[in-house]
Amino acid sequence: MENMDRRLVLGLGLAASTLVLPTAAAAQTYGPDEGKEVGPGVRVVDLSEREAVIPAYKMVKLRDVVIQPGAKTPDNMMKNDMLCHMTEGELAVVQNGNKFTVKKGDVWSCAKGQTTEGTQNKGSAVAIMRVIDLMTS
Q1: Who has greater pLDDT, 61 or 2?
Q2: What is the pLDDT of residue 46?
Q3: Full strand arrangement of the beta sheet holding 107-110
Q4: Shortest CA distance to 44 belongs to which of 54, 34, 35?
Q5: What is the DSSP secondary structure assignment for residue 28, as one 8-state letter?
Q6: Do residues 66 and 45 lie in contact, with contact meaning Cβ atoms separated by under 8 Å?
Q7: What residues have CB less than 8 Å from 39, skipping those under 6 apart?
């Protein structure tokens, strides 16, 4: 009887320990109709916006740019300051003529009227670029 109680307690302890271990967050995915298509294989999903408390900005907006494998965004002059974060996949970026690759977890920035940027998904997986737009108007 004593051995059975020890095994039961050990088993319950192991089962309980699995409940407290952190689990990885699931990747954000979007259906083919979510957001707005802004180009072939490129969709923008607006997530949130709020008034800014940073004196230089009136509003902050959060959006995801979902770029299918092989798709690209054209070179664009940035209309506002922004911070970008790769949440999934990777992108080849050309920013003001400088080429670099951003991978999951990377962060970079763009300046209003000073940054021209284009991207291309050269990988085989969907790339998701999360953008925080810092709006002055």
Answers
A1: 61
A2: 97
A3: 36-39, 42-51, 59-67, 127-135, 81-88, 107-110
A4: 35
A5: P
A6: yes
A7: 71, 72, 73, 74
Question: Which of 82, 76, 114 minimizes the C-alpha distance to 94?
Answer: 76
Confidence check: pLDDT of 91 > 70: yes
Per-residue confidence (pLDDT) for residue 4, from 0 to 100: 52
Res. 11: pLDDT tops 80: no
Q: Distance between CA 84 and CA 106 in Å, rounded?
A: 8
Across all residues in the chain, what is the average pLDDT?
86
Alpha helix ranges (H) inside 1-137: 2-20
Share of the chain above pLDDT 90, in %: 74
Range from 16-20, 91-95, 96-100, 127-131 carrying the lowest mean pLDDT: 16-20
C-alpha span between 135 and 80 (Å, rounded): 6
Phi and psi of 106, rounded to 5°? -75, 155
Cβ atoms within 10 Å of 32's Cβ, excluding its own = 9
Query: Is 100:87 a contact under the CB 8 Å cutoff?
Result: no
Cβ-Cβ contacts under 8 Å for 105 (sequence gap 6 or more) = 85, 86
